[in-house]
Model the fold of this input.
Amino acid sequence: MALKYKFTDWKGEKRVEVEKPYDMLNDISNCSSAHLNESIINLQKVINGELDYWSWGGSDFCTIDSAELESMIFYEFGEKDTVIDTKELLKLITEYKEIRKK
Done:
């Protein structure tokens, strides 16, 4: 299933809205700019085989363990786990970083 999302402006803050079944990724909007930048760098390293994995997320409710091909999303303390392509996730957060700059 393809990752579908859009960027919105909520009370002057840029947010990402991801469609189901990956809507838990909306929590990425909670990432600080520093954490987002670090995650982009480390996800690229994971994809390139320079790191085995990168564990990150947008909140206590949404943590992500990213490996070279797939990332496991743990949501609501393990009650709504799902898998996504790591490259799609990198594309999402890279685009979101650019939107937040504007």
About this structure: The mean pLDDT is 92.
